[in-house]
Amino acid sequence: MGFLPKIPRRILSIFLGVYFIWLGVQIFVDPSAWIAGWVPFWATDLFGSVGARSIDLALLTGIAEVLIGVGLIAGYFTHLLAAAGLFIVVLSGALHGFHEAFIRLGSIGALAALIWWPHDNA
To answer: What's the distance, CA 81 to chain centroid?
Structure first.
């Protein structure tokens, strides 16, 4: 099988990495719009109950998404980062519905493929 199975995985990892970096950067560009549009009121209230600001939630999410993206592009901890990305995408879809951004369905499939991709082809 040689190196061929590695190429599709790298392509998938790179494109998903760019996707997550883009998501994270969008949060940094306008965190208040992200909070207003994507964070349910109960989540900001819950986060505020421990003394944190809603902007902190936005920045933590943005940092996590950028780190997931960079890690996927670099090829480090691919299975773990794909699982973290899958959690974020599914949680976001569960909170807002998949009709808000239909691209989530494709990213779920791609992330699941990376999670279950055999280790020996990494």
So the answer is: 8
Return the exposure string of 2-23: e unless at least 16 CB atoms fall within 10 Å of the residue's CB, then b: eeeeeeebeebbeebbebbbeb
Instruction: Give the residue among 95, 99, 114, 97 at the shortest CA–CA distance from 19.
Output: 114
- Residue 1 corresponds to which amino acid? M
Give pLDDT tens digits for 79-107. Answer: 999 999 999 888 887 777 666 666 677 78
Q: Which helix (H) or strand (E) holds 12?
A: helix 6-29
Instruction: Return the DSSP state at 122.
Output: -
Query: CA separation (Å) from 47 to 43, 55, 60, 91?
Result: 6, 10, 12, 16
Say if CB 77 and CB 60 are below 8 A apart. Answer: no
SS3 label, residue 89 = helix
Model confidence, pTM: 0.82
* Residue range 53-80, pLDDT digits in tens: 888 888 999 999 999 999 999 998 999 9
User: Any idea where the domains of the chain sit in the sequence?
Assistant: 6-117
